[in-house]
């Protein structure tokens, strides 16, 4: 594996490392990086199976270590400085796992709607857990039956209803081949080996961000994480849904700049 293929970088200054979500690419961060690159070295990680990268080889037994190995190798090849690690959606799950595992020097972490559904079981949040399970039952069934644009169900679940239908056709078509990767991501989101004690021992300053138009599950995950991560803070972006890092890039940039946790 040539690790140089797994990242893009732009700008100069203190390093910020971005991890995009499922059914997404590094273009997720385009607007935010435009706002940040003047003062920061912005490094965007490409997840396996996305951005033209090969699929992971662990579909039978998915492991978050696949993503963490790419993240760690990329960062260690680029800088010795402590980084600000930023993740969106499934990228937030990867970033959180890195913060809990502790293999990189992190100055701070910002998670935009991390879909860490394992938290719902750990906190016995039955209502939100049932909401996820009900969705996954139908989604997995439709994927197994090769229903066209099953991928759109994920977009509409985390964002506002009808969000996928507004996407251009070329975006919809580009998402279809990523379905197997997305199913793998769901497995990882729900089956982490971490428990609440790992969160309580996490000392990295952590921002937890959600939109007020998003699925209530996203807010619940952020609130549960805030309860257990000692130095953490939640932020609500008004008028935003799950895709807040593109639709509300300016507001999200201000969250990254909030130093009240440091």
Structure overview:
This protein has 12 helices and 7 strands. The protein has 262 residues and is an alpha/beta fold. β4, α3 (90-101) and β5 (106-112) form a beta-alpha-beta unit. It is globular.
Task: Summarize the helices and strands and which ones pair or pack.
Blueprint: E1 7-10, E2 14-19, H1 30-36, E3 40-45, H2 65-78, E4 83-88, H3 90-101, E5 106-112, H4 118-122, H5 126-144, H6 151-158, H7 169-175, H8 179-190, H9 196-200, E6 206-211, H10 216-228, E7 232-237, H11 244-247, H12 249-257
- SS element count, helices: 12
- From the N-terminal CA to the C-terminal CA, the straight-line distance is 36 Å
Name the strands of the widest sheet in spatial order.
1-3-2-4-5-6-7
Helical fraction equals: 40-55%
Total DSSP E strands:
7
**Major pleated sheet:** 7 strands, mixed
Q: What order do the helices and strands follow? A: EEHEHEHEHHHHHHEHEHH
Question: How would you sum up this structure in a few lines?
Answer:
By secondary structure, the protein is an alpha/beta fold. The chain is 44% helix and 16% strand. The longest helix is centred in the middle third of the chain and has 19 residues, at 126-144.
Task: Supply the key terms.
single chain, 262 residues, alpha/beta, seven-stranded mixed β-sheet, 16% strand
């Amino acid at each position: 594996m040539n690790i140089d293929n797994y990242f893009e970088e732009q700008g100069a200054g203190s390093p910020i490392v971005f991890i995009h979500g499922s059914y997404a690419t590094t273009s997720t961060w385009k607007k935010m990086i435009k706002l940040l690159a003047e003062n920061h070295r912005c490094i965007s990680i490409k997840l396996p199976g996305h951005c033209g990268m090969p699929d992971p080889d662990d579909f039978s037994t998915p492991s978050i270590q696949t993503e963490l190995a790419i993240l760690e190798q990329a960062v260690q090849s680029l800088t010795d400085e402590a980084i600000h690690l930023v993740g969106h959606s499934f990228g937030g799950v990867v970033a959180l796992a890195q913060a809990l595992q502790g293999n990189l020097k992190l100055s701070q972490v910002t998670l935009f709607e991390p879909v860490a559904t394992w938290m719902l079981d750990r906190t016995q949040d039955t209502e939100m857990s049932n909401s996820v399970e009900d969705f996954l039952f139908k989604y997995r069934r439709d994927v197994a039956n090769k229903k066209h644009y099953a991928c759109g169900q994920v977009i509409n679940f985390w964002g506002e209803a009808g969000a996928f239908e507004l996407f251009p056709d070329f975006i919809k078509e580009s998402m279809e081949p990523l379905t197997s990767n997305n199913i793998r991501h769901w497995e990882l989101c729900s089956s982490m080996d971490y428990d609440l004690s790992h969160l309580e021992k996490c000392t990295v300053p952590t921002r937890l961000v959600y939109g007020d138009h998003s699925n209530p599950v996203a807010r619940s995950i952020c609130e549960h994480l805030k309860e257990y991560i000692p130095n953490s803070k939640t932020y609500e972006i008004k008028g935003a849904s799950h895709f807040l890092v593109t639709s509300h890039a300016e507001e999200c940039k201000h969250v990254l700049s909030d130093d009240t946790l440091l």
